[in-house]
Design a protein that fits this description.
about 350 residues, alpha+beta, Multidrug efflux transporter AcrB transmembrane fold, Beta Polymerase, domain 2, 2 domains, four-stranded antiparallel sheet, two-stranded parallel ribbon, 6 strands, about 65% helix, about 10% strand, elongated
């Protein structure tokens, strides 16, 4: 048996445990730093919306001599105003994106690119997207995002309990916010593929969280009757039981996405894959983190405020000979849920 499987077995049986819930302030602090960095990136740089959202023109030239520098110089020579985005696609294509152009400016850009790379105007793939269509796409993307969150919250509230739904949505919002902030920091264009990537990572993050919460529900089904653990201790045990599984599934998911991002977009120059693969890679990593370090602690905090769970903590504390606060899980213990045993006194021999 490998070391990982041996560790997983000990975590599942409760022979050893990592104190996730007791050290929740540490995890909250780490998340707060990323959230603040995301706020700073969004405030200073903002999101670079693609032409699908803000409108504009796109020109794709297929030529063996196509380079980013040559395309930039050719378009700038026409005097076209506004921001200019040039991307290399593969080894023989270059795509130029501009703001909204009138007919004269559009023809000038086509002629300049055709002359620069020695191709015909008809061979240049030209797409013109109006601002109204971009606003419609933005509105639909927001509708899809909020609709997804509402449906997921209703499902979790019915399948589990309302407080689990609140904790899961808090973790999802955490994931999206950090992913968007990193996206703004990197400066990639936000395209429809980016929105698809965001929706995908929402589903993956919830999948991991639901697995943990299902184990929490199993561990806490009769918790008030047994009085052997507090609710926080039971949640911590559930996280430890699913830890190896979450790590394995996340690693398997990150490997192909990492290949798309670093090999496909980085080495092969497939620029159309960058927006999707970056959103997926960041979202998968952050979603795994939140399903372990954010959602379970939030759930434990919400449930520990209930009178029944506070009474349970007092009973567990009185049985273990410790205060309820320590019984809830000490932040400095490596093995949780085990208090000092009261050994029976031995009678001396007569």
């Amino acid at each position: 048996m490998s070391k990982m499987s041996g560790l997983g077995g000990r975590l599942y049986r409760g022979e050893t445990a990592i104190d996730f819930i007791g050290k929740r302030r540490r995890w909250y602090s780490i998340s707060a730093l990323f959230v603040l960095a995301s706020i700073a990136a969004l405030s200073l740089q903002g999101l670079h919306l693609g032409i699908e959202f803000k409108g504009g023109s796109s020109f794709t030239v297929n030529s063996a001599t196509a380079t980013i520098e040559a395309a930039q110089s050719a378009v700038k020579a026409t005097g076209v105003p506004g921001e200019l985005v040039v991307q290399k696609i593969g080894t023989d294509k270059v795509r130029v994106q501009t703001g909204a152009l009138d007919t004269v400016q559009n023809n000038a850009v086509q002629d300049a690119l055709a002359a620069k790379f020695g191709v015909t105007v008809e061979s240049i793939d030209t797409q013109i997207i109006g601002p109204s269509w971009g606003k419609e796409i933005t509105r639909k993307a927001l509708y899809g995002l909020f609709g997804f969150l509402i449906v997921v919250m209703l499902y979790l509230a019915m399948a589990f309990e309302p407080k689990m739904a609140v904790a899961a949505i808090a973790a999802v919002v955490h994931d999206v916010f950090i992913t968007v902030g990193i996206y703004a920091l990197v400066g990639f264009d936000v395209t429809p593929a980016t929105v698809i990537g965001f929706l995908t990572i929402l589903g993956y993050s919830l999948y991991d969280t639901v697995v943990v919460f299902d184990k929490v529900r199993e561990n806490t089904r009769t918790i008030t009757a047994t009085s052997s653990k507090t609710y926080s201790q039971a949640v911590n045990h559930a996280v430890n039981q699913t830890l190896v599984r979450s790590a394995n599934t996340s690693l398997i998911a990150l490997l192909p996405v990492g290949s798309i991002l670093f090999v496909g977009a980085g080495l092969l120059g497939a620029g159309t894959l960058k927006d999707l693969s970056l959103a997926l890679f960041i979202g998968l990593a952050v979603g795994t983190y939140s399903s372990i370090f954010i959602a379970p602690p939030v759930l434990a905090q919400l449930r520990e405020r209930e009178p029944a769970m506070q009474a349970l903590a007092k009973r567990v504390g009185s049985r273990t000979g410790s205060t309820p606060a320590v019984a809830t899980i000490s932040a400095d213990t490596a093995v949780v849920g085990r208090g000092p045993r009261n050994q029976p006194k031995r009678k001396g021999r007569k």
